[in-house]
Amino acid sequence: MPRAALIGSAPDHAGYRRLTAVDPAVPVQATIVLRRDDADAARDLLSGRYDAATRAPEGTDAGVLTAVTSFARAHGLTVVESNSAERRVAVRGAAGLMGQAFGVSLAWFESTERQRYLSYEGDITLPAELAPHVLAVLGLDQRPTTKPRKAP
User: Is residue 80 a contact partner of residue 90, using CB atoms and an 8 Å limit?
Assistant: First the structure.
């Protein structure tokens, strides 16, 4: 089955060094964030009828949600939560299974401050028919996105 990369999903490890591969048995949880079905929004934008203030948030298509949960289960992952309105599916599984499911190598990385973080190498990949519906996979890169301020 062909796979496709989630564009922009490869983490930038500048300032971090790879320590070692993650033990394949370590439990990991991730959240698959689904894209919004914007067909109606695009049509309204083109016709001039789009009003962001009155537009209700849309969930995801039930078929896409089913496909994502089936994908996760087929790779041995447990579906912890599936929420159509929030367009997300939370999954849990062993690091080895997560790596296989998302086509990445999970590893421990160390910051210049000597803090260890779980992350991965390469782009996240998904089955080609599923990838266009996925916005992001969160939780496989656990490095902080901001640094805490130091007290003056």
Answer: yes
How many domains in the chain? 1
Residue 146 lies in a domain: no
What would the pLDDT profile of 123-133 be if each residue is shown by its tens digit?
Answer: 999 999 999 99
How confident is the model over 27-65, as pLDDT tens digits? Answer: 999 999 998 765 555 565 566 665 655 555 566 778 899
144 occurs within a structural domain? no
d(CA 103, CA 121): 9
Q: Domain limits at 58?
A: 3-138
Q: How many Å apart are CA 81 and CA 1, to the nearest integer?
A: 26
